[in-house]
Amino acid sequence: MGMATSSAVSMQAWTCEKIFNAAHTPVSAGCLTAGADPKRNTSTMTMHVIPRTIVKAAAFIAALAPLALLAWNFQQGALGANPLSDITKETGIWTLRFIVLTLIVTPFRRLTGITEAARYRRMLGLFAFFYGTLHFTTYLWFDKFFDVHDILLDISKRPFITVGVASFVLLIPLALTSTKKMISRMGGKRWNLLHRLVYVAAAGGAVHYLWLVKVVARPQILYALAIASLLGYRAVGAVVRARKQPPAH
Ligand code: HEM
Prior knowledge:
Elements (H helix, E strand, L loop, with lengths): L7 H16 L5 H4 L9 H8 L2 H24 L7 H30 L8 H23 L4 H10 L1 H18 L3 H7 L1 H7 L2 H16 L5 H27 L5
Helix pairs in contact: 4-5, 4-6, 5-6, 5-11, 5-12, 6-8, 7-8, 8-11, 9-10, 11-12
Bound molecules: protoporphyrin IX containing FE (HEM).
């Protein structure tokens, strides 16, 4: 999930990871340099300086830190007067942050040549889904007490809830198809197409955040601008690639 890729390079990154893991040796030169500037080959440097498993474990722990901190503050009674509102807000903002981080991977990889970054996209996307699930569950459980009628009424009456639910629903197929097995079963083309849903979910997340506040302030504007830029980057890339393609006969 969140690994919306529009290039063969991305698929190659997945495949290369497979090769790397299977062989327990650094990936072949072909994989390492995919999409990268061979002169800089920063991927190789990263890989040799710190073992990938350690970087991945550190990234995993770092991604869980906001939840640990939230649980700690809750347990210590250090949250505000309405702790459930704080939990909803905190899990919501982390969902959005992980969506943004997932979208940053591809431009970061292209601009820096660090192809290694692509290996963290799935983890980031799954963490967006994880925090989104916690966010939605907090709402369903502590706000609505699983009252289906009340939930449906809220979804139909409050536009920011409608957009939030739609965005979260879009993340579900992405999480379900995030495994390597699903990528090979679906085929790269179809998988990439499906995973473009993350763009819609990201835009929905930004709208949800803008819509839920009475007065739009700097955080809402910054997230909306970040998401608009990241989607704009893809749109421009798609137009440029389409122009480069020879016309079909
Ligand atoms: C991809 C999906 C979603 C994203 C990215 C997201 C993001 C956010 C963000 C950024 C906030 C504000 C946090 C803050 O004020 O610091 C928020 C608040 C909130 N969200 Fe979501 N959300 C999503 C889905 C949902 C869903 C599915 C629901 C429930 C149906 C929901 C209900 C709420 C509620 C009730 C608040 C608190 C509003 C308030 O009282 O201030 N969100 N969300």
